[in-house]
Write a structure and sequence with these properties.
Elements: E1 2-7, H1 25-44, E2 51-54, H2 58-73, E3 84-86, H3 96-108, E4 113-118, H4 122-130, E5 144-150, E6 153-160
Parallel strand pairs: 1-4, 2-3, 2-4
Antiparallel strand pairs: 1-5, 5-6
Helix pairs in contact: 1-2, 3-4
């Protein structure tokens, strides 16, 4: 299974609560650039996504919207609307072991390619867990790390920063 773990784009701190923080103008621009890269990457490798997991926090949902905008700008043709699953477990304090169990279930169901959009510290903790602490991926905003997860041990195969 290939898993693209992405940290949301740059977000404003001017919000009534953490879940309500929205992307900045710069965050939107960078996420669209990442979407263009991801769309080209998936198209060139003829990869179809099986599931997109996204945090319910506003900045993560806006990241997903703008990733899709970027992907469509490079003619990524897959319709991803029916692949999106908003999940409370992938918020900043989510449990990476629960997410690992769900990813294992998805893999057993035949999923091969998953995009996950979340937050620190979860994206770091999850990348550590999936690679058996063999990776040390730093996740500035908008970063995407691709992990090839076979069996119980994954390997980081690509990291894309803006």
């Amino acid at each position: 299974m290939n898993i693209w773990i992405m940290r949301h784009g740059e977000a404003s701190f001017n919000a009534p609560s953490d879940p309500a923080r929205c992307l900045t103008e710069n965050g939107i621009k960078n996420v669209i650039l990442q979407g263009k890269w991801l769309g080209e990457y998936l198209t060139n490798k003829q990869i179809q996504l099986d599931k997109i997991l996204v945090s319910p926090y506003l900045r993560a949902r806006q990241t997903l919207e703008n990733i899709i905008t970027g992907m469509q700008a490079v003619n990524f043709s897959q319709n991803v609307a029916n692949l999106i699953e908003e999940w409370e477990e992938i918020t900043p304090d989510g449990n990476p072991y629960i997410i690992e169990d769900y990813l294992r279930f998805l893999r057993e169901e035949g999923a091969k390619n998953i995009l996950l959009i979340s937050h620190l510290p979860l994206v770091f903790d999850l990348s550590q867990l999936l690679t058996n602490n063999q990776s040390n991926v730093q996740f500035p905003t908008s970063t995407i790390a691709e992990i090839n997860w076979i069996g119980n041990v994954g390997k980081v195969v690509y990291i894309k920063h803006v």
